[in-house]
Amino acid sequence: VNQSKMDFFCKLGYNKQDICKVLENLGQEALEDDVLKELIRMGSKPQALEDQAQPSQLKLVARGSCSTSAGLKWLGEDESDSSDSLRPIVIDGSNVAMSHGNKEVFSCWGIQLAVDWFRERGHTYIKVFVPLWRKEPPRQDSPIADQHILEELEKQSILVYTPSRKVKGKRVVCYDDRYIVKVAYERDGVIVSNDHYRDLQNENPEWKWFIEQRLLMYSFVSNRFMPPDDPLGRHGPTLSNFLSKKPVLPEKKWQPCPYGKKCTYGNKCKFYHPERQHQAQLSVADELRAKTKVPLSQGKEEERCQCSP
What is the domain range of residue 272? Predict the structure, then answer.
């Protein structure tokens, strides 16, 4: 069995048996992109990588026992276990690096800034995808800055390289966007990118909905990573709710009506009326009729007459 392919797909969390089965069907020289497509078609789902990385004694401790908090602190989490409430983060490394480098330089520092921003918020699952050829010495046509950062993030199990190789002197690159969307979709997380992945949206209707609802765009302002406060527009969720598995709805603070008792909006008024607290909310027309003691049915007939041409 091709060990490098086996290691790569195990790193993504796939079952060894499923990987072996696909490699037997497609052959050992099959491209990683084709192997991934076949794994998706088989319905194979990656296991949680964090569970595999944790020491066995932590897995055996019951959540309610005294030693749990110590174990969580050792993992760098607090007692509330923020990983339960915050969504996993999957970063499009190339998009972030090129954006930070003004589309001229692949700036690895941009990736570090994004990772730090999510770390500070308490996200425990952060993955960055970058093509493998970015490990190579930079060329004039594709400059790269602070390349050592990629190595450091790989040691921390945050950065994952998508496969690429050379065939007859030409570089064959696997489609890293597919890895990004697939991992985020499988983990029900958030994609950090300014790319809309239109080709992948057309490829899979489930991915289309997911990309529309879970894409977090961003800007760099003076070396500061800044996602928008309203990721899905003015009427969508706040950034905190967007990044949380359990959104917190704000309490409605009723503002008193500036017109007070003179207000003529009736039940259409969006402000608070203390004098109407125990009254049935009538429409403006019905309220006026009640004041002038005009029967309801008569009023409606009058309205009809006025409306007709």
Answer: 250-276
Pairing outcome for strands 126-131 and 89-92: parallel
Question: Does 10 lie in the same domain as 96?
Answer: no
The list of the chain residues with pLDDT below 50 reads 48-82, 299-300, 309
For the chain, the residue count is 309
Tokens of 248: 């917190």
Residue 215 lies in a domain: yes
In-domain check, residue 292? no
pLDDT tens for 117-158 read 999 999 999 999 998 888 888 777 788 888 899 999 999 999
Cβ contact 29:4 at 8 Å: no
